[in-house]
Design a protein that fits this description.
With 59 residues, the protein is α+β, with helices and mostly antiparallel strands. It contains two helices and four strands, in the order E-H-E-E-H-E. Strand 2 and strand 3 form a beta hairpin.
Amino acid sequence: MKKTWIDKDLCIGCMACVEIDESETLFMDEDGLAEAKENNLELKECQMVCPTSAVKIKE
């Protein structure tokens, strides 16, 4: 189960979250949208830079 995940309906492919993610958990998929590898991380910085609030963190 992913703790930090991407809401694909909100992602616009701007890469802001991927560029700031030092853990390399987030990446761009073949459709040009952000995606998250399996993780147990709270990538709050990535969530904060997303202009569409597509980066989600499960509580």
